[in-house]
Amino acid sequence: MKKLIVLMLLLPVLVMAQNKEDVGVKFERGISADNWDELFSRAKAQNKYVFIDCYTTWCGPCTLAKKQIFPQKIVGDFFNKYFVSFTLQFDENIKDDSETISLRPIANAFSTLYKVNAYPTFLIFDNTAKPIHKFVGVGDADFFIENGSAIFDTLKQYYYLQQQYEMGRRDIKFTNTFFKNFVAQERQNTDTYLKAYLNDNINYFTKENGELFSSIYFYSDSFVLAQLYQNKQQWVEVMGKQKVEKIIEQLIEQKLNKETIINRNYDDRWSLVAARYRNIYPDYFDKLLARIKVSTYILEDCPHKALKAYNALIKDYPNTDTTSTLLYTYSLQSFYNSENKKLLFKSLEWIKKCVRAYNESLKYQNLYANLLYKMGNKEEAIEEEKKVVNKTDSLNKKYYETILLKMQDNQPTWNIRQSKRR
């Protein structure tokens, strides 16, 4: 009888433990280099695909995915239904167990065969070990489910798109898809692919090419900056002035930021940046440098210089106050990098403007609540964060709930970073 009572008392604990194990992505164990084919045999027996997380122990985003994304029920429900999942370590560590050590030849082979040179990289195979899809970086639950759903659509599959491109397919519908789903994983080669595509076109200045430019992420050294800057009027006619200006400003700002970092230890760094770029981009330089100064001083935790730079910015460029994205960036940087009350109060003003302009934006409302909390307005912050939690969808609810719990427990929230697509 006593044994029965003990068992009944333990039953809820056992059920809770079992339920906890059932939540999230289930990763296979018992796989080594000696029985590597067993992974695909398990998938074949269940009529599933294979999902492999290529990670390193030193990679921050890898750890974030492991601790915050894969344990989520919504992610587990999807991946456990369609995939047999496995983690493959790509660095060497003195704490590695025998199974991990035995898999090093597999990891080395993957590095070459599938060009795994950034972490985390995720690979999807069919159950015959044919590669289907590849994606890099970490996002929210939706990001992983979206990439996992590539098994249902060939035009989202990395390796199908690569094959079609190499076979010479260049129609505009395919090209847009190719850049969105393939080149997005090969950003360092964006210019190579884009130049090859444009060289096949007699007329550069088309609406289709303009839409393509608008959909791609470019690095500051991309030829696209010169292309748009030197042929600005032609591109404005097919893309519209706002889109052209946005891309040009983003690329020039990247260049100025890079130059600022290079010269960060010099007292006359702004003069050095000006000496290199003012005459090259005279129509953009002063405005963009004024914006960069604000961010730079915030990140360097120089609040008085940051506020002075901001006042100079809005004096010379008064429309800056209507640019919610910029104000959000300044507010976010202040939240994570400063303890100065004046700067935090100003950041609260900035984010209030963002909330008023876009009252449905949860990221603005969330930052507003967090700034209130950091400034000591706990009760108001908790009420605002509850509104965010109640409004959000299930994909992001865990992130906002974590922040709310931190607030309720009097713990800092400025050490919680939301996962972002990289």
SSE pattern:
HHEHHEHHEEHHHHHHHHHHHHHHHH
Number of domains: 4
Structural class: mainly alpha
Strand residue content: 5-15%
For the record, the CATH architecture of the largest domain stands as 3-Layer(aba) Sandwich
Low-confidence regions: 1-20, 416-422
Cα Rg:
25 Å
Total strand count, please? 4
CATH class of the largest domain equals: Alpha Beta
Q: CATH topology of the largest domain, anyone? A: Glutaredoxin
Question: What would you say about this model in short?
Answer:
By secondary structure, this protein is mostly helical. It has helices at 2-22, 37-45, 60-69, 73-82, 98-102, 104-113, 141-148, 158-166, 172-181, 190-199, 207-215, 223-230, 232-239, 241-262, 269-277, 285-299, 303-316, 324-337, 341-357, 362-374, 378-391, 394-408; strands spanning 49-55, 83-89, 121-125, 131-136.
Q: Secondary-structure blueprint of this entry?
A:
Layout: H1 2-22, H2 37-45, E1 49-55, H3 60-69, H4 73-82, E2 83-89, H5 98-102, H6 104-113, E3 121-125, E4 131-136, H7 141-148, H8 158-166, H9 172-181, H10 190-199, H11 207-215, H12 223-230, H13 232-239, H14 241-262, H15 269-277, H16 285-299, H17 303-316, H18 324-337, H19 341-357, H20 362-374, H21 378-391, H22 394-408
Parallel strand pairs: 1-2
Antiparallel strand pairs: 1-3, 3-4
